[in-house]
Amino acid sequence: MSQVFDVVVVGNGSLGLSLGLVLARRGVRVAVLGQPHRPGAASSSAGAMIGTFGEVTTTLLKTEYGRTKLDWAYRASKLWPDWLASLSPDTDGRELFTADGTVVMLNSVGLPEIDTDNYRAIRRALGEYGERFEDLDPEDIEWLDPEPTARPLQAMFIPDEHAVNAHELLVRLDRAFTAAGGVLITQEAARIDRDGDQVTGVTLVSGDPISAGQVVLAAGAATQTILETLPDQAAMIPGLVSGYGVSALVDTVDGTSPRSVIRTPNRAFACGLHVVPRGAGQVYVGATNVISPDPRSRALVSDVLFLLDCGVRQVRRNLSRSGLRKLQVGNRPVALDGMPLLGETGVAGLWMMTGTYRDGLTLSPLLAREMAALLLGEEGTVDLQLFRPVRSPIQAFDRADIVSTTVTHMMATGYETNWSLPVDLPLTIEHYLRLAYTRIADEFDPEFTPPPELLAASRIHLSIAQSLRDYYAAGRTTVAGR
């Protein structure tokens, strides 16, 4: 017999559970689907930095799309104290915070066109929003002990940018959701069911049907598989690939940990190197973001080596003698145009809440509130229309700028991995990379160009290149039909 709900949320990460919780508290009959251990999910393996400004980049500040995302992150950050308190009936929820503020350091690793410029962008954004920060003498950064060639040149402390315990957050979201009357179904959806242009529910991998007048796809990078059960819709929506990342939980050899997050600005195609305290004697180390056609479940040896080398060389040398407690793999949802997918699709009652890349957990209280309002036919406080799922490709920069950024980031990966080359050879490499990426972009489409990380990945993954070509062809159909 089919179970019947008003809303089914496909995906039990921070976004899906947060939406389910808001709806359940509004009296909606809602179910959230997903395996309890969340294999490969971004939320469960995240450093969970609740950061608005530590993630700011020069490109973010240059466009309407980036400015919108920054503003949403800022609004979301103000919701977190009350949000955590609402999950914890016996406390104010502050015990979920694992870090007291964030130290952003600009060190001698990487390229000035990325690291230095992004460091300046963070300062500029903090000033524009009137947020507190203070400059630090790099030699006074608590706990920091890098090797001399990676010593910091500048540093600032952002006192209101914290981090939370991602595992405990998800546990409390689970409990709060069921306490509010929501139903957790510990299976994944196999397909979306519809009657004409109206969604009717989903069918689980077990074959059992779940009926609902509204279905929200919030399964992160795994959303693409279920969306493709409706091929006509999948063709008109930017496909999702994985921003696969590796993180490590480390038991420090001396039993110490920093009080604050220690991180760099965002770097080549990725978040910055970051070390997050996780209780006495334990830290979380993260730095990687690798575009993959499909979600990954296991870490590549090369990415593990890169991650640990960054942590040891740039943050604390005795991490090399510390115990590796756990390696974690997460898959961030990345749309082919790099932008979120938020709102109703071309099938009535079928919604998407994904494509948030590195911002999903930070944005979860805000997006849960706003998506719930849309589902209930109410007016929200932010306009999600900019990122509606059925759209022509969003392109924030022209082709020449995208190619230039791609080349710069590719060169930066060499410096971050400590390559040693004759001084004039990088100029030659840069020249030929520019030619190669321009040719690849020209072959995709006369006008549309993917964001830098997708352009770079398309050279390696032929399936991503084909997905881009298919999406651009469908995008031209969408434009012509208007």
List the helices and strands and how they pair.
Elements: E1 3-10, H1 14-25, E2 30-33, E3 49-50, H2 64-87, E4 97-99, E5 102-107, H3 112-129, E6 134-136, E7 152-158, E8 162-164, H4 166-179, E9 183-185, E10 189-195, E11 198-204, E12 209-217, H5 223-227, H6 231-234, E13 240-251, E14 261-263, E15 274-277, E16 282-286, E17 290-292, H7 301-314, E18 323-335, E19 341-344, E20 350-354, H8 360-375, H9 399-416, H10 425-444, H11 452-460, H12 462-480
List keywords for this structure.
482 residues; alpha+beta; FAD/NAD(P)-binding domain; D-Amino Acid Oxidase, Chain A, domain 2; 3 domains; 12 helices; 20 strands; 36% helix; globular; oxidoreductase activity; oxidoreductase; Glycine/D-amino acid oxidase-like deaminating enzyme
Structure in words:
With 482 residues, the chain is α+β, with helices and mostly antiparallel strands. It folds into three domains: 3-44 and 167-239 and 337-387, 3-Layer(bba) Sandwich (FAD/NAD(P)-binding domain); 96-162 and 241-335, 2-Layer Sandwich (D-Amino Acid Oxidase, Chain A, domain 2), CATH 3.30.9; 399-480. It has twelve helices and 20 strands. The strands form three sheets. Strands 5, 6, 7, 13, 14, 15, 16, 17 and 18 form a nine-stranded mixed beta sheet that branches. Strands 1, 2, 9, 10, 11, 12, 19 and 20 form an eight-stranded mixed beta sheet that branches. Strands 3-8-4 form a three-stranded antiparallel beta sheet. Strand 1, helix 1 and strand 2 form a beta-alpha-beta unit. Helix 9 crosses helix 10 (425-444) and helix 9 packs across helix 11 (452-460). The radius of gyration is 22 Å and the shape is globular.
